[in-house]
Design a protein that fits this description.
2 copies of one chain form a homodimer. The first copy, chain A, is built from 7 helices and 5 strands; from the N terminus they run ααααββααββαβ. The first copy, chain A, is α+β, with helices and mostly antiparallel strands. The structure holds a DNA duplex (30 and 30 nucleotides).
DNA sequence: GTCATAGGTTCAGTGAATGAACTTACTGAG
DNA sequence: CTCAGTAAGTTCATTCACTGAACCTATGAC
């Protein structure tokens, strides 16, 4: 019952309950993004995915879980749901300023995952303004400091195996910026 | 079924299955540290917790889950199990070099958690050699670059509420270095 | 009218998490 | 020698969340 000299993330809680007694910022963060699929949804959002169906196809996540995660992330202020057309009514989910702060988490997690033995050459990230590959936590060694998300360029690594039926994976084959909306016109 | 332009973390897998088809380093990392409790176990290990019983009391984690997590983390090369006394046989779990690489993940996660509205003043981290508070991802603005774990000083923040029955939470009331073993002598 | 699409909800089955009780192997006190 | 205690587990019934499939709603195209 005592987490990081406090309580929380315990007692059968899975979503954002038990907030009043939280003190450890890691446990509090995990209450929001610690569930299965959640960080992968945020990753896709950083890559520019915005629509329910695109998350669904690209992640291969069960529909009910995706709906629950989008709702929880919206309630937590990580995503913002906004209407992009009226007829038929269609909403998209866009990262808030708060949600964009998760980039350094995903960046360091990806950098660590790369060190797992047997990992293939992954996707690459560079500072678009100077071409320098990003450091472990999204910093640019040339310019110094963290690189703004809009200046991060994603390049597909070797060994990608895009699913022709998935518009998102096709779109991500091109070099692109983080947050740049993925356009998924009908095939 | 398609994650980060590849497959994995899907199809009912929960632990390290499905490795052959993995390409996205974030999904691969989450296969190892993405389950409930796992990152909190690693956090405690970074704080110097090494023994089964100390994890148990400090985290409030179910015994069976703790045993499963310690075994999985050991199998993944994040922790190393080693005997510290022969009679009775007792083992402790220590972070490997690979596991210590998760510090930047936990640091950025904690830094993000701190930005959640309503979060109280959390634990503080400084570069022990110069006293500079650590940056978002564990870097020192004064000295430049990432601070080695052994040079990171943890200070209890305000509002801590240690459990007198928990030797770990008592030990963490003092300023200390990361990885410095928590000594839990009998009360 | 019929079909297709986007964005969901509902529901039964399964697998993982939970908490309590039990086990093993030893130590130290009386 | 016996008894209590400790560290590190295992076992088990219950509960809960994840899964996959089916269904629902609103709309526009043909």
């Amino acid at each position: 019952m005592n987490l990081c000299l406090e309580r929380g993330y315990s007692e059968g809680m899975a979503l954002g309950k038990d907030y009043a007694t939280q003190e450890c910022s890691i446990a509090r963060a995990l209450e929001i993004v610690g569930e299965r699929w959640t960080l992968l949804v945020v990753r896709d959002a950083l890559y520019g995915v915005r629509r329910y169906n695109d998350f669904l196809v690209h992640l291969g996540i069960p529909r009910a879980v995706l709906a629950a995660r989008l709702q929880a992330l919206t309630a937590a202020g990580v995503l913002e749901k906004r209407r992009y057309q009226e007829s038929p009514p269609r909403d998209e989910y866009v990262l808030t300023e708060h949600g964009r702060g998760l980039w350094s988490v995903l960046r360091s997690l990806g950098a660590w995952g790369r060190t797992i033995p047997g990992t293939l050459p992954p996707r690459e990230f560079r500072h678009a303004l100077c071409g320098t590959p990003l450091g472990v936590v999204g910093e640019c060694a040339t310019c110094g400091g963290l690189v703004p998300l809009e200046e991060v360029e994603m390049l597909p690594g070797a060994g990608l195996d895009p699913d022709p039926a998935d518009p998102v994976s096709r779109a991500l084959l091109e070099p692109r910026r983080l947050l740049q909306p993925v356009v998924t016109e009908p095939v």
